[in-house]
């Protein structure tokens, strides 16, 4: 008896909806209006973000005649790849690409390791001076890097290990060494942020994991390597990705340390000097597109990690 | 009885052990901080009080007391004006970016088709909105012209929008501010990707039961935003404001940073440049302290 009555009530309930056409019900109408406004907003913002990419693409494909033709606005009339081949040649793309890839991977890897270790130290051991060290981490974020640009340059130009090596010092510029030193000691670009992310991540991991390891006789180092590190892989990936991307894009440090080398940021910037005449803009745009293409590919493949990054690290919790 | 304890000098209490491991794990940073951060900072303070002369064997310093500061503050015609403009621009930017990123995060947190794609596009500036590519765009005037002409021909013509806004009788100051934001909308959107990410994570950590309870009590969406979402996100507003301020101050597009750079290479010299950046840093820290103390008074913590 119960089942039947419930069924009939359900049917009646469904029938009520039939009497009201969709468009008239006021709550639905409001809802549709809202959906439309939201869609317009989101599409508009997306358009603004993608706009520079589209402009670059359209002008990079233009030939010289299209460039001067007032009637050609977006879609080039005789598209060709001349600008791309020219940028490819003048940027020494293959060499620069490999160098940049090596540099960014190396920096990403080293910063991932050093920031993880430091972040763990700050998260799990209560030692004297801990708050001072954490304050120092924040300080490295706040001080503009322009302030220490010149001393850093001079230190690596006449590198004496701060007076430990005799003589006038070695010139470490135009090599990977300045990046290796700063990355290995967790004071590279935006490393304060990475340390902070790792610290928050480890703080959110349950303490019982390590306690169990300690009871089984593990030292803090083994507990960190065998128990905590495998659990922190998502956060490690995030730190690596951000570090890689920022290093790839970086002009500031690369210009100081490696201005004479064939790395992508330098060769892209040099296009402005090399190429003269009306084609400059188009070639630079083609070069910029080739510069960001690997990053876009990386982003397309690992988009999940970027988008969910801060969720996973518990930066917010 | 056999003594289980091993004698020797390597015997520490638990507290000492924790201390040692704490230092061991943070050792890389301590070394890096001293040698690649503190030492250069002290050097740059010394530079700011002296004249730097590059010689064949290296460099030589000549102590000249406050002359560099004097030059930066009272003789250089650009510095004080640019400093003021940068701080003013910072305040405008921080307000706009915080509001926009909160708004965008609320939008992206809702259910709709293509949400993943929209999120992916919103975070694209993390990858492209910085570094060389942006720099190339800025130095490239014909590219800017091209963009201007394309923007004007498009749907969003700024001049028409500005003209429309003039029709609404807003107070003069507010009108200027709104138009300023409108003209800089691209930059604001491109600068707020990380902030959106932080707000979005915060939104997802709010328990849905709170909203359900509010709905049962008859709260509208507007009310539950101001009574639930906003207070619970307020710690993140602080985080985001601080992040935005720091990001703005250290970004190479910043006018003052460009001025400091210009002075260092080919302008009034290293000494003046470091003096300028030191004054700049003190201003930044003062502003940060004021901002943090103002906002943290109104922040609401759940526990």
Structure description:
Chain A has two domains: 2-60, no CATH class; 84-313, MetI-like (MetI-like fold, Orthogonal Bundle). Chain A contains 16 helices and no strands. Chain A has helices spanning 2-19, 26-60, 64-68, 82-90, 93-124, 130-142, 149-157, 177-184, 191-204, 208-215, 220-231, 233-249, 252-257, 264-274, 280-307, 309-313. In chain A, helix 4 crosses helix 15 (280-307) and helix 5 (93-124) packs across helix 12 (233-249). The mean pLDDT of chain A is 83. Chain B has a domain at 69-131 and 194-298: MetI-like (MetI-like fold, Orthogonal Bundle). The longest helix of chain B has 35 residues, at 14-48. The radius of gyration of chain B is 26 Å and the shape is globular. The model of chain B has no long low-confidence stretch (mean pLDDT 80). Chains A and B meet through helix 2, helix 5, helix 6, helix 7 and helix 8 of A and helix 1, helix 4, helix 5, helix 6 and helix 7 of B.
List keywords for this structure.
heterodimer; A: 317 residues; mainly alpha; MetI-like fold; 2 domains; flat; B: 303 residues; two-stranded antiparallel sheet; 15 helices; globular
Characterize this entry briefly.
Chain A has helices at residues 2-19, 26-60, 64-68, 82-90, 93-124, 130-142, 149-157, 177-184, 191-204, 208-215, 220-231, 233-249, 252-257, 264-274, 280-307, 309-313. Chain A has 317 residues and is mainly α. In chain B, helix 8 (158-167) packs antiparallel against helix 9 (172-183) and helix 11 (193-204) packs antiparallel against helix 13 (221-250).
Radius of gyration of chain A: 28 Å
| Shape by Cα distribution of chain B | globular
Q: Which homologous superfamily in CATH is the superfamily of the domain at 69-131 and 194-298 in chain B?
A: MetI-like
Instruction: Provide the low-confidence segments of chain A as ranges.
Output: none
Sheet with the most strands, sense and barrel status of chain A: none
User: Which blocks of ≥5 consecutive residues of chain B have pLDDT under 50?
Assistant: none
Measured by residues with Cβ under 8 Å of the partner chain's Cβ, the largest interface is: A-B, 94 and 89 residues
SSE order of chain B? HEEHHHHHHHHHHHHHH
Mean pLDDT of chain A: 83
Looking at CATH, the homologous superfamily of the largest domain in chain A is MetI-like
Total strand count of chain A, please? 0
Anisotropy-based shape of chain A: flat
When the domains of chain A are counted, the total is 2
State the CATH topology of the largest domain in chain A: MetI-like fold
Radius of gyration of chain B: 26 Å
